Task: inverse folding
């Protein structure tokens, strides 16, 4: 049932595994699971090569600094791609280059439309996550588990924004 | 911990994370958009299971004094505005900052644009951070609910886990996860409806022939 070669596992088993990742995060790195800071570390480091004045900002300097915590998160976010790739190869799951739901959700089968929406979505996602100081992982998984008041507000707002957009801007999938 | 060791730990943790995301299919755009359209609840099932597990883990680790909690500051306006924008972005990209990488890993081409957009968004925020910090974000206390209620963290965390487990049992009874996977296990149930349509047409034709 839960073989590494299975095509799908129960969401509860996957959730259990993801939740257990808090153990090494807290014990070894002394931080909670999170993903969105890594975008500042990578994006900030890349742009500061062209515009070193960006590093004058303490916020950016703190995220770009070569510290265990910063590089741990970048490595983990990169590792997600490797893990998903290995899992797909082991199960032999096949996918189209773009999920077939998008033709219906966007009312268009144009790749250019999808790429534009994906880019805009990614932009808003990280811009918002950085304002809120966390994303689905940092506020969602870690913040709610820690009973954080701010994270509860952020996750509530995230679902409000997501449900409203998916209902109004996207078509039924 | 040395930086090299932290990177190794990060890669290993990421591989486990990515594995769980791919196997549960929660990273599929069909699952994420489906959740936001309230037609598919796999995302909520994975999310709440992970929160419940995390709460039990932290109740133990913190209750016995092995680790300190790391809650984020409560910033009412920033949490609300940032959370809303994050949600809009999640619906449009069909991903979140972590699952974007799982989509890249399995070869979804549009996820590269989500990733690029995310990097631009993080850089745009970085440039605007001094202004946003002054006008919107500010600073706040690291509030957790059990401190407000005068309880120990572990009591609150175990209660939350208990409530979530009951909620997940009820959710699963109402909607079995196996019925939510979709034909290609990507949350896309269109194929099913297409088969149903074909079956109906066939039925009509057979009736006419009779």
Result:
């Amino acid at each position: 049932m839960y073989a590494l070669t299975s095509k799908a596992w129960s969401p509860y088993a996957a959730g259990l595994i993801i939740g257990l990742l808090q153990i090494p995060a807290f014990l070894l790195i002394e931080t909670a699971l999170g993903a969105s800071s890594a975008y500042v570390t990578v994006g900030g480091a890349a742009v500061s090569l062209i515009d070193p004045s960006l590093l004058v900002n303490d916020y950016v300097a703190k995220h770009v600094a070569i510290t265990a915590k910063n590089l741990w998160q970048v490595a983990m976010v990169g590792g997600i791609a490797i893990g998903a790739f290995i899992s797909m190869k082991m199960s032999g799951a096949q996918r189209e280059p773009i999920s077939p739901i998008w033709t219906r959700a966007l009312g268009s089968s144009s790749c250019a439309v999808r790429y534009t929406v994906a880019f805009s979505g990614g932009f808003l996602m990280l811009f918002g996550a950085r304002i809120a100081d966390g994303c689905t992982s940092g506020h969602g998984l870690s913040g709610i588990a820690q009973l954080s008041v701010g994270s509860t507000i952020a996750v509530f707002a995230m679902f409000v924004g997501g449900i409203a957009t998916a209902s109004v801007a996207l078509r039924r999938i | 911990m040395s930086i090299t060791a932290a990177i190794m730990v990060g890669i290993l943790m990421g591989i486990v994370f990515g594995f769980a995301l791919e196997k549960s299919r929660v990273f599929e755009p069909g699952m994420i958009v489906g959740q936001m359209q309230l037609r598919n609840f796999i995302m909520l099932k994975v999310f709440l299971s992970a929160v419940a597990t995390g709460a039990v883990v932290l109740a133990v680790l913190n209750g016995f004094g092995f680790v300190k909690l790391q809650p984020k500051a409560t910033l009412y306006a920033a949490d609300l505005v940032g959370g809303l924008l994050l949600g809009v972005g999640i619906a449009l990209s069909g991903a979140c900052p972590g699952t974007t990488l799982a989509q890249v890993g399995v070869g979804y081409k549009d996820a590269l644009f989500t990733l690029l957009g995310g990097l631009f968004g993080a850089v745009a925020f970085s440039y605007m951070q001094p202004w946003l910090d002054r006008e919107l974000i500010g600073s706040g206390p690291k509030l957790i609910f059990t401190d407000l209620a005068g309880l120990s963290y572990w009591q609150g965390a175990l209660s939350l886990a208990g409530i979530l487990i009951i909620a997940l049992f009820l959710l699963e009874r109402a909607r079995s996860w196996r019925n939510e996977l979709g034909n290609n296990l990507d949350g896309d149930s269109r194929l099913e409806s297409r088969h149903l349509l074909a079956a109906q047409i066939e039925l009509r034709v057979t009736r006419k022939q009779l």
Chain A touches chain B through 136 residues (CB under 8 Å). The longest helix of chain A spans residues 68-91. Chain A has a mean pLDDT of 97. The two ends of chain A are 29 Å apart (CA to CA).
